[in-house]
Write a structure and sequence with these properties.
Strand content: 5-15%
Helix content: 40-55%
Number of strands: 11
Number of helices: 11
Structural class: alpha+beta
CATH superfamily of the largest domain: Transferase(Phosphotransferase) domain 1
Low-confidence stretches: 167-175, 275-298, 357-363
Shape: elongated
CATH architecture of the largest domain: Orthogonal Bundle
């Protein structure tokens, strides 16, 4: 019998390399396709030790059904493609595309997502489930652990291994619950829910977990979790942002109150659209031929300081001029009398000089330079006689 161990050969073609993960229904291995010389993922469908022959036959049928149905979805960009199914010594092995990345569950171990990070995931999963719905296929185990995030930013829904075609309900074992309890729709817990509409509830629980950081119905025991799903409303999402409306509607306990797949697509697209628009706007933004100089704000303190200094200088010049002119009776005091007006001219030139980037004056720098030179010449002419006499 084939065993799940490194270097084991499955179907005479797929060599197991290392275990990637495990769950209640099996283990996933990294493997090498010896025929095509490519890496693949191989899921080992584990059978419980106490399984009866009937249960084993049911599991084999389910594996074969997965390959048949998944083949219809293999071209969807948000669904992990199933390439082959191998039944060896009564054990089913599902060969799938190998995805480099991590599950959403692994990502959430580092903390919740922002609405902007979760919105593309929501749009991708709604689209994937909508495609499955169009093919009359229900996933039945939508949860963070079955959402793969690739290193290139793609979102993929995987593990249709427990999926069921709407016409295959007779293959479900009596009393056997399929799926993860805390993400399961209430109608399925009551035993009469089937179809993709129940997957929408599971999607709502998954997105709630993604943005809030906790599963909306997780409790200490499975019984308490089921009771929460059936009878209790989750806490309203506080961090969902634009995804709030979508999540709240998906979590409606009445299947008829949930949005259709078309409505869910619209809600997800609306939550994701601001990010798309920003990206397009950034790429297509024309270059301004006359951009605002980056130092405009940096010059503001200098302009304010220069303006204050100039106003103070002008005020002092006026006062000194009035006092000096009232006592200017000799020629040697005329220079002192003319000094304040020169100071005023210097202040004006300084004000012109500090504001060339903000004043609507062309060639303000040459004007400021000329005014400053004229002021210096006046001051020099006035004070040279005093220096010579001294």
């Amino acid at each position: 019998m084939a065993e799940g161990r490194p270097d084991a050969m499955i179907g005479g073609r797929y060599r197991l390399i290392s275990e990637l993960g495990s769950g209640g229904f099996g283990r996933v291995w990294r493997a090498h396709d010896e025929a095509l010389d490519v890496s693949v993922a191989v899921k080992e469908m584990r059978l419980p030790p106490s399984s009866s022959d009937a249960e084993q036959a049911d599991r084999l049928k389910r594996a074969e059904r997965e390959a048949r149905h998944a083949a219809r979805l293999r071209d969807h960009p948000n669904i992990v493609a199933v390439h082959d199914v191998v039944v060896e010594d009564g054990v089913p092995w599902i060969v799938m595309r190998l995805v480099d990345g991590q599950t959403l569950a692994d990502r959430l171990a580092d903390g919740p997502l922002s609405p902007g990070q979760a919105a593309p995931i929501a749009a991708a999963l709604v689209d994937a489930l909508g495609a499955a719905h169009d093919a009359d296929i229900a996933h039945r185990d939508v949860k963070p652990g079955n959402v793969l995030l690739t290193e290139r930013g793609h979102v993929l829904l995987t593990d249709f291994g427990i999926a069921t075609h709407d016409a295959d309900t007779q293959l479900t074992s009596t009393g056997m619950f399929i799926g993860s309890v805390e993400y399961t729709a209430p109608e399925r817990l009551e035993g009469h829910g089937r179809g993709a509409v129940s997957d929408l509830f599971s999607l709502g629980a998954t997105l709630y977990h993604a943005v809030e950081g906790v599963s909306p119905f997780a409790r200490d025991t499975a019984k308490a979790t089921m009771a929460a799903i059936l009878f209790h409303e989750p806490q309203p999402p506080r961090r969902a942002g634009a995804l709030t409306d979508l999540i709240v509607r998906l979590l409606a306990k009445d299947p008829a109150a949930r949005p259709s797949f078309a409505e869910a697509r619209e809600l997800a697209a609306a939550a994701n659209s601001p990010r798309r628009e920003t990206r397009v706007e950034t790429v297509q933004q024309p270059v301004d031929p006359e951009p605002v100089p980056p130092r405009q704000h940096a010059d503001r303190p200098r302009i304010i300081a220069g303006t204050i200094a100039t106003v103070f200088g002008v005020a002092m010049a006026v006062v000194v001029t009035m006092i000096t002119l009232s006592g200017a009776t000799h020629a040697d005091t005329r220079g002192d009398a003319l000094f304040p007006p020169a100071l005023i001219a210097g202040g004006i030139s300084f004000l012109v000089g500090v504001g060339p980037r903000t004043w609507p004056i062309r060639h303000s720098k040459p004007i400021a330079f000329g005014a400053s030179m004229a002021t210096f010449a006046v001051l020099l002419a006035l004070w040279l006689p005093n220096i010579a006499v001294g």
